[in-house]
Amino acid sequence: MTFDSPAWLFMLIPLPFLALLRVWSHVSTGKGGESLVSPRLRGELIVGAAQWLRWTVFSMNLLALAFLIIALARPEWGFVESETHSEGRNVIIALDTSRSMLATDLQPDRLTRAKLAAEDIVRTLPEDRIGLIAFAGRAFLQAPLTVDHDAIIESIDQLDTEIIPRGGTNLSAPVQMALETFEEAESEESALIIFSDGEDLEGGGEIVQDLKDKANELGMVIVAIGVGTETGSIIPEPDSKGNPQPGVFVTDESGQAVRSRLDPAALQKLSAESGAGVYLTLGGSVSITGVVEKSIASLAATRLEENISRRIPKERFMWPLSIAVFLWLLAFLLPASSRSLVRAFSGQTEALDVPPPLPVRAGKSIVAIIILTLPAGHFLSAVEVESTGYRALKRNDFDQAIANYQEELRQPETEEQARWMNLGLGAAAYKAGNFELAQESFGQVLASSGATPAEIGKAQYNIGNTLFRSGEVLLGWDRSKAEGIGGPPPIPDKNLRQQVREIWEKSVEHYEAAAEIDSSNPQTAKNIEAVKKHLEYLDQMDEQEKQQEEQEKEKEKEKKEEEEKEEEKEDEKEEEKEDQDQNDQNQDQQDQNQNQDPNQQNQDQDDKGEQEPQDQDGKGQDPQNQDQQDQNQDGKNDPQDQQNQDGKGQQ
Question: Strands of 90-96's sheet, edge to edge?
């Protein structure tokens, strides 16, 4: 079994760690819950008593995710025999971007009309490999041969008169570059389509003659398309952004406005010497796309075509995808059905007002971050100065490119060349991950007194990219892992966040400066938005840390209040105990007073009884006579008492 997109399989690496994290979370939260509940009631009250259900659902979700990743990797096993044949031709479109292409004898101007016609040609050749060359005094390969026609059209849209640093028109330059490109592609049949106004100011006609034999050897057909009219028009003077300025025109040394006219002679000679070449005029009655398609179609007659038997692997991604969907559906339905089965077989009733899960400390939460990635750089044609450094940069040999650029910068021919070299050095250093050198090199362009607005805009943009990536590296965020695996980046400490925040704020400032110079680049606004989202993420981390600190302070405050309340309760208990002891002591004293020695009381009464009563004369009387006398005096005795007294007397 093989995989068509095996890079997706790296997404399987975090899954075991997710399982371990789930186990750790279960163990830590379980201990917290058990400590709050009595062992006798633990099985009834703790939420999640049916742990088997939770683990089953978690396992199903994890397996479903694994099968989904396998499906994205597009597994293949088995083969299907298929017969195919090679098709397609190699075609390069060359566009003249000299200032004369701003002439308005074709509306809105020659360059815009040529770009629209070139895009139409690309759309009529859906099966062919197409490349793009921009030329003026020099030629640059803007896009290599590719079947990605959307990229070609996007490259055509970005062409302007400022993209080539050297002015003028050299018709031999695109021919020479096209021949080199076709040789590298080992193309036997190819076509070159040139859009130009034909004003060969660089004297390349003689050089083109020297290229005739080589073009015929490679079987290259040249379709020359003249852009403009023979009457011509004056050329508007472009501003710093390459846009024509109303009422301002290009003048010659005497101050007269320069009138540019279509010069078809050089273009006709160029197409005629290529054998089956064709010359056309843009804006005429002839369909450009129809003639071009017909001219290129003749290449198919001489191109080698043979049927090839191929074994095409069978894609089986539907199997793991179906399993993933089934597991997710089962994980969704299982909890509700299992609760009903448990109640049916165990006789338990469904609990109402189930308590919420125990809170998890903030330090244990996981924050999933989607890293917003910025493009590696918007390095425009200014860095594409033909040199040993640039050739190494094209080969993606960035260390060698840095060394070559540094060597070339020791003795630059002109200040303008030094700025181009610094832009190239910054691009190479950026690609190599040497952001300090990249920032220094782009800064040299800004420090140059003769830098053009276009160069300043490119330097500002690339400094913004460099600062942003510097912040990522400082945080330890691995962009390859963030884009390929999707894992969350590490959360830095507060001081590191502040340092990165300052770097990213400077990045936004440079992006905004670049946007003021060149507002036509949509990527600048996207990068500004992306960096601001990263800054918002840092703010969210600060807010989360602040909330955690406040929660800790609140917990300390509550703990202190509880301790004070406990102390107050202890004091109240001590006071109550003292009061109770005092009351017990008083009660004991009363009991002692009431329970005196009975013998002592009787002795006291006997002492009183032995005292002989005296009459008024002070003489003693018989006690019986005294009692009788008292009764007679009172006259109030109760009959029963009287009887008792009589009885006593009788006794």
Answer: 139-146, 129-135, 90-96, 190-196, 220-226, 278-281
pLDDT tens, position by position, 220-229: 888 999 998 8
* 410 burial via Cβ count (<10 Å: 0-12, 13-18, 19+): exposed
Q: What pLDDT is recorded for position 209?
A: 57
Q: Are strands 220-226 and 190-196 parallel, antiparallel or unpaired?
A: parallel
CB–CB of 279/264 below 8 Å?
A: yes
- Taking the C-alpha atoms of residue 335 and residue 53, their distance in angstroms, rounded to an integer, is 7
CB atoms within 10 A of CB 416: 17
pTM score:
0.38
- Distances in Å between the Cα of 183 and the Cα atoms of 68, 190, 217, 218, 547 are 45, 10, 11, 8, 65
Question: pLDDT digits over 432-462, tens only?
Answer: 888 889 989 888 888 888 888 888 888 889 9
Structure token digits, residue 253 = 């040394």
Rounded to the nearest angstrom, the gap between the alpha carbon of residue 223 and the centroid of all alpha carbons in its chain is 47
SS3 511: helix
Q: Where exactly are the structural domains of the chain?
A: 2-78+315-349, 90-236+260-303, 381-546
Whether the per-residue pLDDT at 121 is higher than 50: the answer is yes
Average pLDDT over residues 313-318: 83
Q: Which of 7-11, 120-124, 566-570, 631-635 has the lowest mean pLDDT?
A: 631-635
- Helices and strands (H and E) in the chain: how many: 22, 13
pLDDT of residue 199: 72
Burial 457-490 (b: 16+ CB within 10 A, else e): bbbbbbbbbbbbbbbbeebebbeeebeeeebebe
Question: Is the CB of residue 623 less than 8 Å from the CB of residue 630?
Answer: no
CATH number of 381-546: 1.25.40.10
User: In this structure, which long-range contacts are made by residues 372-375, counting pairs with CB atoms below 8 Å and at least 24 apart in sequence?
Assistant: 372/530, 372/533, 372/534, 373/479, 373/482, 373/483, 373/530, 374/465, 374/468, 374/469, 374/527, 374/530, 374/531, 375/465, 375/523, 375/527
* 112-to-49, 167, 174, 281, 471 alpha-carbon distances in Å: 73, 18, 19, 15, 40
**Ordered alpha helix ranges (H), 158-278:** 172-184, 205-218, 264-272
- CA distances in angstroms from 602 to 594, 599, 605, 612, listed in the order given: 15, 5, 5, 18
Res 472: pLDDT:
83
For the cut 80, the answer to whether the pLDDT of residue 315 exceeds it is yes
Length of the chain: 651
Superfamily of domain 90-236+260-303, CATH level 4: von Willebrand factor, type A domain (3.40.50.410)
